[in-house]
Amino acid sequence: MLDDRAGRLSGRGRLTIPRWRVGLVAALAIVVAATAAALDGSVRPGAATAASAGANHMTGAWFCPHGGGPGWRGWVAIANPGPRTVRVRLTAFGAAGARALSTFDLLPETEQLREVAVAERGASTEVEYFGGGVGASSAVSQGTGAKAISASEACLAGPQRSWYLLDARTGVSESAYLVAMNPFAEAAEFDVSLFTEKRPIRPGPLTPLVVPPGRSVGIKLNDFVLLGQGESTLAVHVVPRLGRVLVGDVVIGTHGIRAEVGVPGPRSRWVAPSGGTSGAMQLILLNPGKLRSDLSAIAQGASAQQVVSGASDLSVPAGGVATFTLGDLSIAGLLVESTNQRPVLAAVRASGAHGGLATVAGSADQARRWLLVPAITPSSGAAVLALQNPERTDAILKFTWIGLSGVVAAQPESLTVGAGRTLQVAAPVVSGVSASAIITLTSGRVVPAQWTSAASGSQFAVVLGLPVPAGI
User: Fold this and answer.
1) In which domain, by residue range, is 58 found?
2) pLDDT above 60: residue 21
3) Strand partners, 407
4) In terms of domains, do 334 and 368 share one?
């Protein structure tokens, strides 16, 4: 069964649709026709099913709405931190439907880098796993050599009630694409709202938007809003009405490619371990609530922490977006907290030391064990693990590097990250692939990320760590 995707799309894998839903599906078909012009590619009926958890809680899927384009190349990196061999199946989704890519075994404490299909703007990949837990991230690349541009991002663990994207810019010489992935067996209907520093936008063709079963589409946001004077950020809010959808975005511009995946909701505290940056950074804040949010931003570096220059009195109005240009925060992480307990969403737009931009979404997780899976491209150069301790006590941790053939011997095996400090550790590279890191906290807390810079061309990518579920 694991080697035959078609077997899951018909017969026993097909969902039974009640009579009352037949009329609903017909109505949705009309909406699909009305919104097809907004989609990057044709939309035809189809069906797909999600990975079935069944009785085995170690069965599931990662969803990677990475996007792509003509002539692009893409990869997913999968790491198995556990003691058991895991069966993995890759499936590509696009405007025309699903296509099985490969099925393989991933040995304990190993990783693999697999090329995937990314020929269209709405390209996405599902990474199913059976018999054990894995982590996954994705990367896309355009061009070669000095003209290569690329981006990386962690994959999503599953659908949410809403999604936010904070850095879908449609400025001069920039094109932003919303990637909406529906790998499930029923249509997904959802509303898309857009926000800039000056205005909210509710595009009629995107309210609602329908993605049929087993499809993934790219929507060019430039067709609905262009950033004007005094606007430097375009934020996106996706709210499902029916079915389930996973979202990401890709921005293509003069600074290369940057990508992000959806964040489910606001929090009062965000940690952004960017690292590897050069020059000024920009802090992006979205307040979806009904009351003003007041915030503080603290830069945490290797030897000190301080309130960020120019960001001592941050405030975002209800329903508003704000973009703040910060000072030079090279190799520093950012801690953003609401001082009046009004939750927001936060991300950092950072430039790499050798060119390229990356969007670093804040992390709200407080995990005791992390898995960091960096997805790199053939043009990737240095890979560095960035650890940020936002707390008031030191963090002690140990970590294991795992590569294509197993555990990679590298020093140090344990270290301490001071309170309110960051620490960077060079990641070992085996056969051209950066090793994944398993991070276990023995005391304190950290938030990890891994950044890569370009060996050639324009690239700066930051991938956040994934909390490791209990039992792996």
Assistant:
1) 5-261
2) no
3) 402
4) yes
As a whole number of Å, the end-to-end CA separation of the chain is 24
Helix (H) / strand (E) containing 279: none
Q: What is the DSSP letter of 291?
A: S
Residue 470 has pLDDT above 90, yes or no: no
Half-sphere exposure of 366 (CA within 13 A, CB side): 8
Burial of 41 (0-12, 13-18, 19+ CB in 10 A): middle
Which residue, of 234, 261, 288, is where some domain finishes?
261
Residue 160, number of CB atoms within 10 A of its CB: 18
35 occurs within a structural domain: yes
pLDDT digits (tens, 9 = 90+) for 281-319: 889 999 999 999 999 999 898 888 888 865 557 899 999
Instruction: Give me 179's structure tokens.
Output: 């990637």
The pTM of the full predicted model, rounded to 2 decimals, is: 0.87
Establish if 472 belongs to a structural domain.
no
Question: Phi/psi class of residue 97: alpha, beta or left (left: φ > 0; alpha: ψ in -120 to 50)?
Answer: left
Give me the amino acid identity at 264. P
Same-domain pairing of 286 and 248:
no
pLDDT in tens, 357-376: 889 888 988 899 999 998 77
Q: Does residue 345 share a domain with residue 415?
A: yes
> Of the ranges 7-16, 361-370, 430-439, which one carries the lowest mean pLDDT score?
7-16
Spell 381-402 as b/e; 16+ CB within 10 A means b: ebbbbbbbbbbeeebebebbbb
| Pair of tokens at residue 449 | 């990320």
Query: What CATH number should be reported for the domain holding residue 11?
Result: 2.60.290.11
1 vs 59: CA distance, rounded Å: 14
Q: Which residues pair with 280 in a beta bridge?
A: 328
